[in-house]
Amino acid sequence: MGFFTTKVNDVVGWARKYSIFQYPFVTACCGMEYMSVACSHYDIDRFGAGFPRFSPRQSDVLFVVGTISHKLAPVLKRIFEQMAEPKWVVAFGVCTCTGGFYDNYATVQGIDTIIPVDIYIPGCPPRPENVLDGLMKLQEKIANSKQAL
Amino acid sequence: MPIVLEKIKEKFGAAVLDTHSFRGDDTALISRDKIVEAAKFLKEDPELDFNVLIDLTAVDCLNLDRPHRFEVVYHFYSIAKKHRARLKVPLTEEDPSVDTLTGLWPGANWFEREVWDMFGVKFNGHPNLQRILMYDEFQGHALRKDYPVRKRQPLVGPQN
Known about the structure:
A: alpha/beta, Rossmann fold, five-stranded parallel β-sheet, 5 strands, B: Beta Polymerase, domain 2, 3 helices
């Protein structure tokens, strides 16, 4: 029985890591870098994550791309809450990780103050290779975690 | 003295508190009860013919050692005459308010909302003087020099 459950876990993890439906929450200049990752030059589809869904209810991974202001923060939180489990969050670019150089009255100092983050991809903006590296780390994390069924 | 400043001075006399013209930037400091009249004059006088309100903003002079706290700054441009002018209105800390220019330039609407949002300068007669950049729950005015640099007012998440 133990053998069977670990195998199921592995198979489901393998399936989940190669079928990421992402929700791009794009607010700023990092969006350009996201586009180059998503399009044919860097081709995020090689990793099975090539299908952006523009409804949080249909997506697995929330890509938060670009600066989040305090005015926008409740919207981001709500989008996150609308996603169905299992779900993961990627902080794309330094503004989402820490607020970046926007250390001011308007900007959220890291989205992990409002929602849980699985992978941080720093850079201003991150190179596409860096994003793909982050994506592979996320895949690893998805595959190695205990799968909720 | 450039013709723009000359004409303003001739028309408004003592209401023009100061003028200067550094490298072609004609600037007049004008008292607040005459600003709408002065803007109307700039717009309608055929020799001046300022038909564009390029910018409307403000300066907090808290640490600048001036007798007033705020300056509201108006930039005008004439497409036909190709000349520019800048008017400034000094305002006190106790009563930072000035009449709106929305009656002359509808484009002043959002500029004035921004100045209200960031500096807390009231525009009398404005049709919709609400915050334009920050959220309604925001306390204070962020670009005032006495707004604490580290102060954050998040709507969700931890407060500092």
